[in-house]
């Protein structure tokens, strides 16, 4: 695990450098990028729009999603599409069919999650690069501390119920799916993340106590933090 510390804006540029380097190293015809929602990733998305990557070989999947309507302000899909994918599609860099969002509707949620896992399996079933961010409580994706979601041994996506943070129902990449990431980038921005960051970095703190500590067990991993 490599740790980069400094000014947030400079770190965001460094994230793009590392991400680009890893994508070109992978050099596959089908590269899977896993992305989250949330405020930490906003600046990264804006920079990615200007980045010359093999976009037409890339497939974007969601790390997690809140079970809300896609036009809801809480929707990760809404953020990802507005800030990242639509601009790439409109510029001609990226193919619309290469964005694989999890769109929630009122149907059978377990079938939807199973179908989303199957969709990822068409592209090797893993993230080549996953962009992650830590919550103030140490959660990652929608895997929360002291919650059954982090104990679930599913290999794909899973339903998270009774989330400690609203909305109560979410879909998330499982612990095992995140651990299989070939490369992972963890964003830790903001003083409100300090306690979570400190826990994440402690070898004696378990996934159950701090799910973001998953990053320590992904061999090719990077942490970017403005906590000095």
> How is the main sheet built?
7 strands, parallel
Strand proportion, as a percent range, falls in: 15-25%
Which structural class do the helices and strands define? alpha/beta
Query: What is the element string, with H for helices and E for strands?
Result: EHEHEEHEHEHEEHEHE
**How many distinct beta strands?**
10
Estimated helix fraction = 25-40%
Mean pLDDT: 95
Shape: globular
The number of helical segments is 7
Give me the Rg, rounded. Answer: 16 Å
Low-confidence residue ranges:
none
The end-to-end span amounts to: 17 Å
Lateral strand order in the biggest sheet: 1-10-9-6-2-3-5
What is this structure, in a nutshell?
With 228 residues, the chain is α/β, with parallel strands linked by helices. It has helices at 8-26, 42-48, 76-90, 109-121, 148-151, 175-179, 194-200; strands at residues 2-5, 31-35, 58-62, 64-66, 99-100, 129-133, 157-160, 170-173, 184-188, 221-225. Helix 1 crosses helix 2 and helix 2 (42-48) runs parallel beside helix 3.
Structural topology:
Blueprint: E1 2-5, H1 8-26, E2 31-35, H2 42-48, E3 58-62, E4 64-66, H3 76-90, E5 99-100, H4 109-121, E6 129-133, H5 148-151, E7 157-160, E8 170-173, H6 175-179, E9 184-188, H7 194-200, E10 221-225
Parallel strand pairs: 1-10, 2-3, 2-6, 3-5, 6-9, 9-10
Antiparallel strand pairs: 4-8, 7-8
Helix pairs in contact: 1-2, 2-3
């Amino acid at each position: 695990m490599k740790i980069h510390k400094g000014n947030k804006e400079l770190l965001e540029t460094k994230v793009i450098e590392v991400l680009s380097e890893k994508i070109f190293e992978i050099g596959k015809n089908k590269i899977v990028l896993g992305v989250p929602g949330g405020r930490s990733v906003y600046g990264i998305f804006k920079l990615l729009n200007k980045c010359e990557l093999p976009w037409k070989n890339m497939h974007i999947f969601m790390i997690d999603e809140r079970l809300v309507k896609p036009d809801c302000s809480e929707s990760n899909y809404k953020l990802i599409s507005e800030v990242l994918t639509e601009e790439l599609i409109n510029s001609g860099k990226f193919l619309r069919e290469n964005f694989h969002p999890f769109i929630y509707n009122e149907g059978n949620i377990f079938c939807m999650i199973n179908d989303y896992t199957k969709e990822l399996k068409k592209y090797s079933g893993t993230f080549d690069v996953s962009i992650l961010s830590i919550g103030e409580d140490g959660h990652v994706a929608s895997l929360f501390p002291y919650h059954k979601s982090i104990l679930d041994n599913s290999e794909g996506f899973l339903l998270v119920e009774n989330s400690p943070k609203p909305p109560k129902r979410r879909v998330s990449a499982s612990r095992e799916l995140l651990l299989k990431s070939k490369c992972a980038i963890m964003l830790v921005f903001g003083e409100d993340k300090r306690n979570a960051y400190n826990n994440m970095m402690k070898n004696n703190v378990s996934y159950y106590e701090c799910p973001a500590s998953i990053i320590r067990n992904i061999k090719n991993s990077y942490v970017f933090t403005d906590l000095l």
